[in-house]
Amino acid sequence: MSKTDGKLWVGIFISLFCIALLFLKIDFGKLRAAFCEMDYRYLFPAVLFTFVSYYFRAVRWRFLLLPIGKTRMNNLFAATIIGYMANNLLPARIGEFIRAYVLGEKEGIDKSAVFATLVLDRLFDGFTVLVILLIAFFSVSLPAGMEKVQKALVTGGYVTLAIYVAVIVFLVILKRRTSQTIHVVGCLLRPFPAKLGERIIPVLGSFIEGLRLSSRIHELASLFLTSIVIWAFALWPVDLTLRSFGILLPISASMFILVFLVFAVMVPASPGYVGTYHAACVYGLMAFNIRLEKALSIAIVIHAINFFPVVLAGFYYLWKGNMSLRRIRLASSHQES
Fold first, then answer.
1. Is residue 247 part of a domain?
2. How many structural domains are present in the chain?
3. For the whole model, what pTM was predicted?
């Protein structure tokens, strides 16, 4: 069994465990009643704002790609949607490689350089989410008895911030002192099997060559601004879904739940983050004394909003571009290796 297959089975087990944990305690009559109480008019704007968030992801990606060359928005948006569709359907977040491969093919640019911009893309996401996390945990008011949980989450936020700062510092040093940094990494890897170093060192070298960031102030400002817009429109559907179930909470509560969802997609799970996504949403909602059945119904709707429309749109762009997901997956896997 390959390493990828092993991760997939671990993810499936975790997903099944989370599903069992949720559904074994459910009163299905109350779950059905929660759906019957829902105001479905909120779904259309929630789906719309989700796609607006993806559109601005393409806009930010365009700014990240400027040091490599100008790219067309229609290709950027199509590649973004196809990549996120693949993340929903395929294991191991292979959608990131597929996203880079599709844009590289459409624009005729180096795919490894395109993938390097996606690392920066994730770093911008990480810092934006950390800002949301800190705002949420310092402003949200949890019910009595949850003070220790809130304090633990704030501590976790600081730890995550420290990790992100360390990653940024490493990338800056790697970019400015490439040969010296790679030499140090090689020394640190000596106690490990030689094959590990033989694999990591060349990847670091080729990766840093493609890692570029514009030095123009207005372009850097645009990157930060689009990051805020991306997550504002990702946050809005959470608030709209809560309102559709008649739950009116401050925006800090939606931030709190969104952070839970972000961490949920980092946990190994089956394709589509089934189970882990729902569990994170449910336990985030239950912190506000929302009963289990209503919390699960909300989790199912939020997941569906982020899953089905993106998958359908992804297949549309595959069809429009006369592409096959299987062929792209094989080609991008070859590129990855």
1. yes
2. 1
3. 0.84
Q: What is the DSSP string of 30-68?
A: HHHHHHHT--GGGHHHHHHHHHHHHHHHHHHHHHHHTTT
32 located within any domain: yes
- The full DSSP string for 99-163 is HHHHHHHHHT--HHHHHHHHHHHHHHHHHHHHHHHHHHHHH--PPTT-HHHHHHHHHHHHHHHHH
Evaluate whether residue 171 is within a structural domain.
Answer: no
**Does residue 336 sit in helix, strand or coil?**
helix
Tell me the pLDDT tens digit for each residue of 34-73: 999 999 999 999 999 999 999 999 999 999 998 888 899 9
Integer CA distances (angstroms), 101 to 57, 96, 328, in order: 17, 9, 8
- Give residue for tokens 């952070």: 259
Cα 194 to the chain's mean position, in Å?
Answer: 33
Is there a domain that residue 181 lies in?
no
Q: By CB neighbour count within 10 A (0-12 exposed, 13-18 middle, 19+ buried), where does 134 fall?
A: middle
- Which structural domain, as residue segments, surrounds residue 283? 3-146+214-336
pLDDT tens string 141-179: 777 666 676 677 677 667 777 877 787 788 778 777 778
